[in-house]
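Lab notebook, design round three. We kept the backbone fixed and only want residue identities now. Task for the bench partner: fill in a sequence for the structure below.
Input structure tokens:
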């Protein structure tokens, strides 16, 4: 069983969760990887495996294992106890050093903190290190006191509306007529008898008096590039709860409708992108953004796509790949998230991005792109320029390539070869060149990074 597990890990190659070292002579590099794993999601170092994934084997004795354990405990702080095992494959022994994600981040090796990025272990930048320390202290910005804010800054009508909706949606046990100060206490939006940042953002008469960055900027661009003049542009301020509907209404005003047959003689119309998916992405941006960053949430609508720009990267330990799979709900603003939950804006199950993907795929659209651009999470909804008539003119291999792109967003030469295993590489290259010449796909990247996307 251990041999099979080892082979499976080696086949996957070095990654954000695995590091190969040919022997204990590379222990210093192994320690760097272990430190990085502790600051990330945990991982495994294999001693006795080349960086190409070849099992070389490693001399193993009790003193060897004891030495590895001592070095890890002595050189990495806070101190950790790794899980060390000896695996065997074809008579060759491999030492497996496994660590879980650390619970006392950040971890330091000889005074330097490392993180895991793909198969590399770079030094954590000072600003990122500071954020890690703050996260460890469980400091949440939305629960901090809003300096200078008083009950006069709170809109009583907004509080009453909210309590009415929360009672209807989640049976929240606070009557709509409850005095504002009592309602805010029940919602845990006061700290030491003072208003929190969350209270002002959710129910303030003018939240931007305290937080200029708490706005949403929406723009409809002409064409496919973010260049002026705008076809339309609006800036929404006020309560962040109201931001959701205002931004969604702007988007729906500028997203075209398309006609389709729903198994009936008459034609029906719906938006080119799923309305609920757009709304979910907007809610996520408002609820989970980093409000300490002096930037605005942006909704950018182009001829071929719609982009929703949040503020700040994903909260750790989430990665972009996690958004496509089952993942925990990691909250940057717990108070705001709880208040959104009570009115059914969010579910706090970590399924929001999965729902967005499912809704787009059900409509025959490509999977939305989740990217971090200039330190911000960006969700991009895409549509196709290729018509059914154009699809009919393509051969079966090309149609398979298009179907793959619709589902996964990009296609490599290796992917195409797997789709058409009996066809020569030269023929497949001609098929791709033909799609490029027809402006159906675009070639991107260079050398090993070459891939194709829909135009």
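Proposed sequence:
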């Amino acid at each position: 069983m251990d041999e099979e597990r080892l082979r499976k890990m080696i086949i996957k190659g070095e990654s954000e969760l695995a590091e190969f070292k040919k022997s204990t002579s590379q222990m210093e590099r192994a320690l760097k990887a272990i430190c990085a794993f502790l600051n990330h999601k945990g991982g495994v170092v294999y001693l006795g495996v080349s960086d190409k994934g070849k099992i070389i084997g490693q001399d193993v004795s009790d003193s060897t294992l004891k030495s590895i354990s001592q070095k890890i405990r002595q050189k990495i702080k806070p101190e950790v106890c790794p899980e060390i095992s000896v695996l065997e494959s074809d008579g060759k022994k491999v030492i497996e050093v496994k660590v879980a994600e650390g619970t006392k981040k950040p971890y330091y090796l000889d005074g330097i903190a490392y993180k895991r990025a793909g198969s590399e272990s770079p030094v954590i930048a000072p600003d990122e290190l500071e954020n890690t320390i703050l996260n460890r202290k469980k400091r949440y910005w939305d629960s901090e006191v809003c300096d200078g804010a008083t009950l006069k800054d709170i809109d009583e009508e907004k509080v009453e509306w909210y309590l009415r909706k929360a009672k209807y949606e989640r049976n929240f046990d606070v009557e709509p007529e409850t005095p504002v100060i009592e309602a805010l206490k029940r919602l845990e939006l006061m700290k030491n008898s003072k208003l929190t940042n969350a209270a002002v953002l959710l129910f303030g008469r003018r939240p931007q008096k305290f937080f200029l960055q708490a706005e949403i900027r929406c723009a409809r661009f002409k064409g496919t590039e973010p260049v002026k003049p705008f076809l339309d542009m609006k800036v929404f301020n006020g309560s962040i709860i109201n931001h959701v509907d205002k931004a969604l209404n702007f988007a729906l005003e500028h997203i075209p409708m398309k006609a389709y047959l729903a198994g009936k003689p008459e034609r029906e119309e719906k938006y080119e992108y799923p309305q609920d998916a757009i709304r979910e992405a907007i809610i996520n941006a408002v609820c989970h953004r980093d409000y300490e960053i002096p930037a605005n949430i942006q909704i950018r609508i182009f001829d071929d796509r719609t982009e929703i720009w949040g503020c700040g990267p994903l909260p750790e330990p989430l990665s972009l790949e996690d958004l496509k799979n089952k993942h925990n709900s990691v909250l940057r603003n717990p108070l705001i998230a709880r208040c959104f939950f009570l009115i059914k804006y969010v579910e706090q199950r970590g399924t929001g991005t999965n729902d967005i993907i499912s809704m787009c795929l059900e409509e025959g659209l490509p999977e939305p792109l989740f990217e971090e651009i200039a330190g911000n999470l960006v969700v991009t909804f895409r549509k196709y320029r290729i018509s059914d008539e154009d699809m009919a003119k393509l051969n079966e291999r090309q149609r398979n390539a298009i179907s793959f792109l619709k589902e996964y967003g990009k296609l490599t030469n290796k992917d195409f070869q797997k789709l058409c295993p009996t066809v020569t590489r030269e023929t497949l290259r001609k098929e791709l060149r033909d799609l490029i010449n027809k402006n159906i796909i675009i070639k991107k990247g260079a050398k090993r990074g070459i891939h194709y996307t829909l135009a």
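Keep this in mind before ordering anything: The domain at 216-382 is CATH 3.30.565.60 (Heat Shock Protein 90).
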